[in-house]
């Protein structure tokens, strides 16, 4: 495994397992399979409604807690001083752990400043080893980094070969914030798994499309959290430490960047307006 050292010295695995859109009933089995396969970073969120499944898997994994890196995210309806801390405590209970290795704010909406102050308090109290944000664009990450007491350590954003987040990545590098990718397989969009360029590069290295894409992002210093519910695919996704992409490979993949979202564009007013309407119908402790 390769690691990214966060600016506070915490070592974070460069490759982990994400559980987005896995129902709670399946999550225990999937996370247990992932840990058995060698994953040590597990990424969940309050809004995924599967923290209990993750916790059950952690309890049965047979791996010491200090060898696992567990991430969760505070949902927007739990933002606000006091509310966010209560939601962190609830996440800890659902996950069956005394601390989280990383807690993120899931979106840059609502009272994210009040929520972030609670993250800082949780960090001070040892409830979390690192804090950060998710889906913060360049302006928002500059904003929170400038005015928060403790600068975010991680920003998790949509990142894949079709949207490589170069500007945001550059800003994060300048701020010392680790760049983490959600959707590293672009959720299969644009015919990702049969992409001819990635397939050709993979053929030269005896690897698949997904492995090439993960290796490319990791070479850029981006932490990745691919998801699969199949153990054999989990094994393929983590099998990326025995090959290197050439300069020519990297140049070709860099040319695939369309510099725009293809999954969920947080900058699109229509998308954001729909998101806001949905927030109104979601209760606290989502």
From TrEMBL:
The record marks 73 as: Lowers pKa of active site Tyr. The keyword Oxidoreductase applies. The keyword Lipid metabolism does not apply. InterPro entries: AKR (IPR020471), Aldo/ket_reductase_CS (IPR018170), NAD(P)_OxRdtase_dom_sf (IPR036812), NADP_OxRdtase_dom (IPR023210). Keywords: NADP, Oxidoreductase. SUPFAM superfamilies: NAD(P)-linked oxidoreductase (SSF51430). Belongs to the aldo/keto reductase family. This is Aldo/keto reductase.
